[in-house]
Amino acid sequence: KAGVTQTPRYLIKTRGQQVTLSCSPISGHRSVSWYQQTPGQGLQFLFEYFSETQRNKGNFPGRFSGRQFSNSRSEMNVSTLELGDSALYLCASSLGLAGGLDNEQFFGPGTRLTVL
Amino acid sequence: AQTVTQSQPEMSVQEAETVTLSCTYDTSESDYYLFWYKQPPSRQMILVIRQEAYKQQNATENRFSVNFQKAAKSFSLKISDSQLGDAAMYFCAYNRNAGNMLTFGGGTRLMVKP
Fold first, then answer.
1. N or C: which end of chain A has fewer CB within 10 A?
2. Chain A residues in contact with B106 (beta carbon < 8 A)
3. What is the pLDDT of residue B97?
């Protein structure tokens, strides 16, 4: 079974641009979560999608948005990029929304975004 | 809001020795889950071990075990017979059992000396 895939793996943008990152979950998984990892702030939860609906959202500005498609693939978009948006963006997929031990989250390799 | 704290930014252990990584958390919830994740230089997050808050028995997975002290809100990871491949960042994480959102600690970098 293929793991979680994220595209692109690396991305360089300039301030003010926008960017779209993609996450394809493990086949059969319906929940996708996104995290931002930076040296200063660590790992922070962005949002979670289940069955095309956003279920949870972290404390990020409205420039960060996402969506999920009917095949469970998810995209996140960052508009008007700032230098501080440079980070590793990780997505994780799981079967359902229940949390806990029977709903293990599997992480993708991440997308490294650099904003110049 | 829940918080997770890892007080050891870096730890070092000799190969074949035992090391313990510390984690404390703050929550008012009674039903939650705790995890340890490993992030090697490849950046791929890998689940190491997990614990249900209502279970008093500490979880074990081969060379990895936890010491879960619910009243103290402490969740430490013990790695026995350390191997070179154990070198990585280790993150403690909390899940409130309402969705899949994980709250992570700041991480501990583990170095393994041959």
1. N
2. 42
3. 72
Q: Band of the pLDDT at A2, cuts 50, 70, 90?
A: confident
- Give the distance from residue B25's alpha carbon to the nearest chain A alpha carbon, in angstroms: 15
Region of A101 on the Ramachandran plot (φ > 0 left; ψ -120 to 50 alpha; else beta)? alpha
Find, among A92, A87, A81, A80, the residue nearest to A40 by Cα: A87
Q: Which of B27, B32, B100, B103 to mutate to test the interface with A (most CBs of A within 10 A)?
A: B100
Q: Which helix (H) or strand (E) holds A89?
A: strand A87-94
Q: What is the mean pLDDT of chain A?
A: 94
CA distances from B107 to A76, B10, B31, B88, B92 (A): 25, 9, 23, 10, 7
Residue pair A23/A5 in contact (Cβ under 8 Å)? The answer is yes
Using a CB-CB cut-off of 8 Å, the residues of chain B touching A35 are 102, 104
Token pair belonging to B6: 């890892």
Residue with tokens 């730890």: B11
Supply B93's token pair: 């994480």
Greater confidence (B58 vs B97) lies with B58
DSSP track, B71-94: TTTEEEEEE-S--GGG-EEEEEEE
How far apart CA B83 and CA B38 sit, in angstroms, is: 14
Name the residue with tokens 């252990």.
Answer: B13
